[in-house]
Amino acid sequence: MERISPDKWYQTRRLDDGVTAISEPFIQEFYRCNIWHVRGRDRDMLVDSGMGVVSLREWVPLVTEREVIAVASHTHFDHIGCHHEFECRAVHSAEADLLANPTRANTLADPYVTDEIFDALPPEPYCSKCYGVKKAAATRILEDGDVIDLGDRTFDVIHTPGHSPGGIALWEAKTETLFSGDILYDGPLIEDTYHSNAADYVASMERLLTIPVHVVHGGHFPSFSGERYRALITDWLKNKQKKM
C-alpha cells in the first residue's frame, strides 16, 4: 500500500465561529476521527487529537500558535493519539485511567487497527501491529457541569456515557453549538464496545434531546444542523422503544 508523507497526512478546513476541522483523509471515513480546533481570546481548545500516527504539533501549525487545552471526548484510539503532545490535557474522570494507561485493548486499537482501515498508510516506520496510544495523564479532570473557559467563549461539559463511560459533549450556549463526540454523529453509531452501556446510552440521548442545538460537530462524519440532530435522536429513541 502507498505511504503518505507527513506533510500531506492532515487536512484543515475553517468553518464559522472560529472552528477549524482537522482530519486524516487517508483513514477510511468510519474510523476517521474529527479533530476540532476552536479559537478563543485567551487560549484555544482542541477537541480530540486523532490516531497519533503523524504528529499534530509538527505538521499542523494551527495547534501550536497559542496556548491550547486538548480535550478528550473519550479515550478510544482514534480520538487521543496525539494528546501526549499537549501540555494541558482534559478528560472525564471515568476515563482518566485509560488516558494515563492506554493499551491496545482498552483503547480499542485491538482489534480495529489494521492496514485495512487506511486507504494509504502513514509514513514509515508506522506499523499497524505495533501501533499503540502513548501515555498522556490528564492535567485536568472533568465532571458533568464543568466549564472550559477560553476567555470570550465558554463550553459546558455534558457527561454522555453510553458509547463509553467517560464520554462527554461540549455545549456553547451562546452559539448553540455542540461538540458531541461519539455519542451522536450522522452515521452508524457504535453501541457495543467492551465498556458501552445501553441504559446509559438511552439516558444520554434523552438528555441531549432537551438541548436547543443549532449546529453539531460530531466525533465522525460531517457536521449537521439542529433539525437533523433532533431527528437523529428521536429516530434512535423510537427504535430502542420498539425493541423493548
Automatic annotation (TrEMBL):
GO biological process: antibiotic catabolic process
Top-level taxon: Bacteria
Bilayer-crossing regions: none
Keyword field: Hydrolase
UniProt xrefs under Pfam families: Lactamase_B
Molecular function terms from GO: hydrolase activity
Record-linked InterPro entries: Metallo-B-lactamas, NDM-1-like, RibonucZ/Hydroxyglut_hydro
Keyword Cell cycle: no
Residue intervals of the Metallo-beta-lactamase domain: 32-220
The keyword Transit peptide appears for this protein: no
Family label: Belongs to the metallo-beta-lactamase superfamily. Class-B beta-lactamase family.
UniProt-recorded name of the protein: Glyoxylase, beta-lactamase superfamily II
